[in-house]
Design goal:
Blueprint (H helix, E strand, L loop, with lengths): L1 E5 L4 H12 L3 E5 L8 H10 L5 E2 L6 H10 L4 E4 L6 H6 L1 H21 L4 E7 L23 H19 L4 E7 L1 E3 L18 H9 L6 E4 L11 E2 L1 E3 H14 L7 E6 L5 E2 H12 L5 E4 L14 H7 L7 H14 L13
Parallel strand pairs: 1-2, 1-4, 2-3, 4-5, 5-6, 6-11, 7-10, 8-13
Antiparallel strand pairs: 9-12
The structure holds UDP-4-deoxy-4-formamido-beta-L-arabinopyranose.
UDP-4-deoxy-4-formamido-beta-L-arabinopyranose (WQD) binds next to helix 7 and strand 8.
Pfam family, one: Epimerase
Keywords: Carbohydrate metabolism, Galactose metabolism, Isomerase, NAD
Cofactor: NAD(+)
Amino acid sequence: MRVLVSGGAGYIGSHTVVSLVEAGHDVVVVDDFSNAKPTVVGRLESLTGTHVPVHAFDLKDADKTAQLFSMEEIDAVIHFAGYKAVGESVEKPLEYYRNNLDSTMSLLEAMRRHDVKKLVFSSSATVYGEEAPVPYEEGWRHLESTNPYGRTKAMIETILTDVAAATDGMKVALLRYFNPVGAHPSGTIGEDPQGIPNNLMPFIAQVAVGRRSHLNVFGDDYPTADGTCERDYLHVMDLAEGHVAALEHLEKMDEACRPFNLGTGTGTSVLAMLKAFEKAVGRELPYEIAPRRAGDLTAFWADPTRAEAELGWRATRTIEDMCADTWRWQSENPHGYPDGSAPVA
Ligand code: WQD
């Protein structure tokens, strides 16, 4: 299939581009490069051995989005594009609602105009909120995220559910990610957060490569085995392959719109992840115990059985793989992607 990947120059989008090409699909990328470096495109073309057409504009521009579907033959869409920093969403809720919702509706209007009826959406375990029993199951109905970012994801899930129900033959998979980490084993693409990383793995990697003095462990007084929070970390290549599995499952799906957890089903603590990274680097890494971070939940992980039963997908890479692949990327790219200009479509 010819797949439009929105946000395809981003962390998860770029890894999914590689898996899509490996699975024999053609890819077109649209990205506004607000949270991605253009030089990733050249890396993708080297990795895939193919030209990756890139359209650089903001999906909130409905006219440009409609033009894109006129210019490019699109069979399906994987929609990653959106703002995704939880803390920032608390400070700038209006920007998050405007950007994440408008870009999605602009995309849906163009899809309708061009009769494109296959969509895979990048959702998040954040939609479950803090009341959901662990492991999180897709049947949990009370989606009450605790932050505007998560609420945009839950709202978009609702929009997609309603639009799919009203559009004959439309099929949508809502992929609820747990904690994506890691990098392509080549070491040429990986996570490259701008500024100070919010998330654990890139922060540890930047400590290891000397960009940060130490890791702050946000609390060691939680009711867990070692006192630090536990999360379901998932290798980004497993996640990318999950998107291909979902895309290829759509035509067989009975429901018009269906959520799937993409996680391992196992929790790992902050300190356990730090120790695993130290093993990958071959030396101890400095850390300090810091106060708890507001909004952090103690522990959650996925019930991954639906994705395995229906998509034929399960995570196969280990915490050690996640750390080794992250370290290869970070040590070979200490400052992330170089600046530069993107080749155009
Ligand atoms: C993991 C654990 C921190 C940094 C977030 C978003 C979620 C999703 C994934 C988009 C927590 C601890 C972290 C640090 C630390 N993103 N930590 N020191 O918060 O589970 O999920 O990213 O979909 O929506 O909420 O991931 O990596 O930020 O934190 O101790 O410097 O690591 O307290 O316990 P989180 P995270």
